[in-house]
Amino acid sequence: MKRGRPTPAFIIRRVENLIRDLAKQTVENVIAIGEALCEVKERLAKYKTGSWLAWLKSSFEWTRRTADSYINTRRLFERKLEQGESNVAIVATFRKFDFGALYLMGGPSISHEEFDAAYDRARRDEHITHAKAKQIIEEHK
What whole-number distance in Å separates Cα of residue 43 and Cα of residue 61? Predict the structure, then answer.
């Protein structure tokens, strides 16, 4: 049987799967980046070897807000660990957040109540988009 060229639908499904796989890796990377940023921030403060904001700018051209979102996402992860959830379960739930939604929910102005509401919805297999995260935040203000 002769094989033809892949159909557009086949190619699109393959790309969708690739994007999903990369998005899963993104969650782990956000958590790891937050942990690494915490370590550097603590070391700079402890040993007074430089300015946190200057380091962020010179190393990555990031703002405090960008770094805080990574750090706060890591802290949310740690909080769920402290509440007795497994690493695997937390990561699986975080994967149900779009990157923009996870970044937003890790923001410094987001309360635990707002995050927990989004997290509980994600745990029930609801996909949390940036727009849905904003809606959840508004519902809990």
Answer: 20
CB atoms within 10 A of CB 74: 20
User: pLDDT category, 141, cuts 50, 70, 90?
Assistant: confident
The domain tally of the chain equals 1
CB 68 within 8 A of CB 107: yes
Which pLDDT tens digit goes with each residue over 48-78?
A: 777 999 999 999 999 998 898 889 989 999 9
Instruction: Identify whether 2 is part of a domain.
Output: no
**Cβ pair 106, 69 in contact under 8 A:** yes
How many whole angstroms separate alpha carbon 49 and alpha carbon 44? Answer: 5
Mention every residue, 6+ apart, whose C-beta is less than 8 A from residue 85.
none
Structural domain containing residue 95: 8-139
* Residue 3, in any domain of the structure: no
Note the pTM of the prediction, 2 decimals. 0.78
Q: Which of 39, 30, 104, 118 is nearest to 74 (CA)?
A: 30
Q: How far apart are CA 96 and CA 120, in angstroms?
A: 11
Report yes or no on 132 lying in a domain: yes
Please check whether residue 1 lies inside any domain of the structure.
no
Q: What is the DSSP letter of 5?
A: P
